[in-house]
Design brief:
It contains 13 helices and 11 strands. The chain is of the alpha/beta class. The strands form 3 sheets. A 6-stranded parallel beta sheet has the order 7-2-1-9-10-11, sandwiched between helices.
Length: about 325
C-alpha cells in the first residue's frame, strides 16, 4: 500500500472443500484477513519470491530444538530441493541430527514426571520429545571421536563449516541434514560450536590433540564474502539467539536483507532478540526498509511445514 493511499480489499470467507491442497488453504487464508492466517499466507508468498529470485542468497537460521522433531524432515527437504544456500544454527542441531541418524527419539508429553524419566529410565525430555541417554551422548561419543581422528589427521585447524561438512561426508543417510548439506554444497555455520554435545566431543578430542584449533574467523570471513557478493539476500529466521543475530549482523554491511521471514513464539516487551520483530532490525540497517518482510507469530513446527508445503506445491 502506497503512503497516503488506502486500498480496501474485502474480507473473504474460507471455503473448505474436499481434496483442498495446503497451497489452496494458504491462499484462502490470505483472502480471509484473519490475523496470523494472513501473515502466514503473506510469508508463503515472500518465501516463493525469495526462492525464485535470481542471484539471491537464501539463508536459513534456526535453533536446535526443532531438529529433535519431525520438522527436521522439512529442513532436509528444503536443502534437497535447492531452496537454501546457507544455514546458520546452534550446536544442538548437529547433536540431534547425528543422534537421530544413528538412533531414535520418541514422542512424549510436556506434563510427564521428569524425576521419573531421569531416575527410572535415563531419559531427557525436550518439550514433548523423549531423548534416551543411549540415543544421545553415548551415540555421539561412539561415532564422532573416530571421525575426528580421520578428519584432523592431516590438519590441526578447520572452520566449523568445514568440520561439519567433513562429518556429513562420512554419513550415508538421506534423512540426515549434515549428509544432505554435504551432498548439495550447503555450508552449515555454528558460531557457538562448543555449546553442545558435538562441541563437547571436540573438546574431548582436544584433550589428546592440544594443537587443535577451530578457525572461527574463517567462518566469519565466508559469511562476510557470501553476503557482500550476493546481489540480493533473503532469510527465513526461526527463533532468536546467536543464529538469528549472525544472519542479520552480516547483512547490515550490505545495506540489509532484501527478503526476511521471521517465525517466533517470543514477545518483544522484554527487549530480547527472540522477541524483536523485523521492524526493529530495519532501524539497525539489518533489513532494508523496502524489503519484502513478514513476522509470523507461532510454533515453527506448524508454520514452517505449511510455508514449505505451499511453496513446494507452486514450484514443483
Amino acid at each position: 500500500m502506497a503512503k497516503g493511499k488506502l486500498e480496501l480489499i474485502p474480507v473473504e470467507d474460507i471455503k473448505v472443500k474436499k481434496g483442498m491442497t495446503v497451497d489452496e488453504m494458504l491462499t484462502a487464508m490470505g483472502r480471509a484477513g484473519g490475523f496470523t492466517a494472513q501473515k502466514l499466507a503473506d510469508a508463503t508468498d515472500i518465501a516463493e519470491s525469495m526462492i525464485k529470485k535470481k542471484d539471491c542468497l537464501r539463508i536459513l537460521s534456526f535453533p536446535a530444538c526443532i531438529m529433535a522433531t519431525g520438522t527436521r524432515g522439512v529442513i532436509v527437504d528444503m536443502v534437497k530441493n535447492h531452496m537454501i544456500d546457507l544455514i546458520i544454527t546452534t550446536c544442538g542441531t548437529l547433536d540431534h541430527d547425528l543422534s537421530r541418524t544413528f538412533a531414535h527419539y520418541y514422542k512424549g508429553d510436556f506434563m510427564m514426571d521428569d524425576a521419573m524419566l531421569r531416575d527410572d529410565y535415563e531419559i531427557s525430555r525436550l518439550g514433548n520429545v523423549l531423548v534416551p541417554d543411549s540415543c544421545y551422548g553415548i551415540v555421539l561419543e561412539d561415532n564422532l571421536l573416530p571421525m575426528f581422528e580421520d578428519i584432523f589427521k592431516d590438519t590441526d585447524s578447520l572452520t566449523t563449516h568445514e568440520i561439519i561438512d567433513q562429518v556429513g561426508a562420512r554419513l550415508d543417510n538421506e534423512d540426515s541434514l549434515l549428509y544432505q548439506c554435504h551432498k548439495n554444497n550447503v555450508p552449515i555455520v555454528v558460531p557457538g560450536i562448543t555449546d553442545g554435545s558435538f562441541g563437547c566431543q571436540l573438546w574431548m578430542y582436544y584433550q589428546f590433540h592440544r594443537k587443535l584449533r577451530i578457525d572461527l574467523f574463517a567462518d566469519e570471513q565466508m559469511l562476510s564474502e557470501m553476503t557482500n557478493e550476493a546481489k540480493y539476500t533473503g532469510a527465513i529466521i526461526i527463533g532468536g539467539g546467536i543464529s538469528k543475530h549472525h544472519v542479520i549482523w552480516w547483512n547490515q554491511f550490505r545495506g540489509g536483507l532484501d527478503y526476511c521471514i521471521y517465525l517466533t513464539t517470543a514477545e518483544e516487551y522484554d527487549g530480547s532478540l527472540s522477541g524483536a520483530r523485523i521492524r526493529e532490525a530495519v532501524s539497525w540497517g539489518k533489513v532494508k526498509e523496502d524489503a519484502k518482510k513478514m513476522t509470523v507469530e507461532g510454533d515453527a513446527t506448524i508454520t514452517l511445514p505449511l510455508i514449505y508445503a505451499g511453496v513446494a506445491n507452486r514450484l514443483f
